[in-house]
Structure formats: structure tokens, C-alpha cells
Input
Amino acid sequence: MNRVFAALADPTRRALLAKLAQGQATVGELAAPFSMSAPAISQHLKVLERAELVTRTTQAQWRTLSLRAEPLDEVSRWIEQQRRDWNLRLDALEQHVDNMQKLDREKEKP
Amino acid sequence: MNRVFAALADPTRRALLAKLAQGQATVGELAAPFSMSAPAISQHLKVLERAELVTRTTQAQWRTLSLRAEPLDEVSRWIEQQRRDWNLRLDALEQHVDNMQKLDREKEKP
DNA sequence: TGCTTAATTAAGGAACTGGTTAATTGCATA
DNA sequence: TATGCAATTAACCAGTTCCTTAATTAAGCA
Output
């Protein structure tokens, strides 16, 4: 997951992924909206590829990029697990505070 | 979100967060399981703090760290949105392939 | 006051990131 | 075959990351 999170930490790469979520595209198509050199985009795509977030297929001189869902599924599971754990804790804490307040009220007028 | 994803890209920091999901802890308590110098942990915690994933409260010479849910909620929303988009595309593609196969079959024996 | 403990700051180094320009590869086509 | 286009590789640079050890801050206690 290290590489996946690191890949997602860059806004250019997140934009590339968002574009790819709308369908396959060639390197040129992906690069067009950015004011950045072709090699820079090429390197970003390499990072996404090493994180297994995209695959590259060659036809003639064009490379077509496609998204791969698995790594996103994996980070999703980690994050949702964390949120579950954390929310459980928060709920328990809230419960605890409620109990304390109830005890306080009962102490005031028994 | 840049800082949040970057913070999550390091396994030591993910472990620190996982520990904190079980409840608040001091720097010392968090550092104990790691074979790493105290300053190293301190710096990891600073990264988590800058990503607003944790808050630090001081009591005497102890710092108590607590998780903050918001940034995790934000990355969760981004990831789930991406997964939705991507799955929609996948389903549409599958549908398309099915239609093509159906057409083929109808062409074979009309 | 001096000592101990918890933690941070300071300084430094090796490796990695994110960009650049220039050169190269691979394919298609006049 | 020469030319052009899509894309990558190579080489380089500035800035960042992740770790270290040494020094410093701040609080509690004999």
C-alpha cells in the first residue's frame, strides 16, 4: 500500500486517475490538459504503474492506459477499517461522557 | 489531501494511527514498539499533525495524541467516488461486450 | 538546587521526488 | 529511404523525506 498512497499524494497523478476513470486514454490524451513536459507525465504514469493503479498496452506508437481497481480496493478497505475502529472509540467515549453527566445530575438532586 | 495521502504512505505512520484508533496515547507509549530513535517518532508525529490526522495536547511533560476523523473522511470520499466512477465504466464495458456477443450469435443463426 | 524523565529541536547525510532539456526508440507514411 | 510523430530514456538539479546523534527545553522530585 505504500506505493499506492504515495502515488495518490500527488495532485497531477490524482487528476490522471480521475481522467482514466472516465475511460482508457493514450499518454498524449492524458498529458494534453497539463502545462508540463511529456517526460514529466511519463514519469507520473510510471509511478502509477509501479503502484499497479494502471496498466499500459501498446498499439503502434501509442500507449493506452487503463485503470486497475484492486489497489484502490485495498486502500479503501484499510481506510474504512480505520474509520470503523475510530468511530467505535468515539461512540464509546460519548457514551462515557453521557454516563458521567447522568451521574452528576443524580448527585445534584437525588 | 496531498499531506494526508503522503502521511499514509509510510508504514510506521500507519501503525501509529492504527494504535491511536484504539485510544489516545503519549509519544512514549506510541514509540515503544518501534526500534527507532525518539526523534524519528517525533518527526513522524509531526507529519501526522501537519496532515491534521492527529492533535497533540500537553499535560506536564507528556504529550497526548488523539486521532482526528475529518481528513480520513475526506480521502475516503475521494476514493469511494473513484471506485464508483470506475465500476460504472466497468459495468458499461461488460454490458457492451455482452451486446456484441449477442449480436454475433444472432449473426450466426438468424 | 541538582537529577531524572519526556519530548523536541538542531544539524547532517543518503536516498527519493518532481521537474527540466536533450537524445533515443519505434512505428507509419510520403 | 527520409521524415515525422508518440513516447521513453538519460542526465541533471533543487527540494524533500527519513533516519541518525547531540544538544536543548520543560516538568517533577529528592
Notes: The longest strand of chain B covers residues 54-59. The mean pLDDT of chain B is 89. Chain B has two domains: 2-68, 69-110. Residues 6, 10, 12, 36-37, 39-40, 43-44, 47, 60-62 of chain B lie near DNA strand D (CB under 10 Å from a C1').
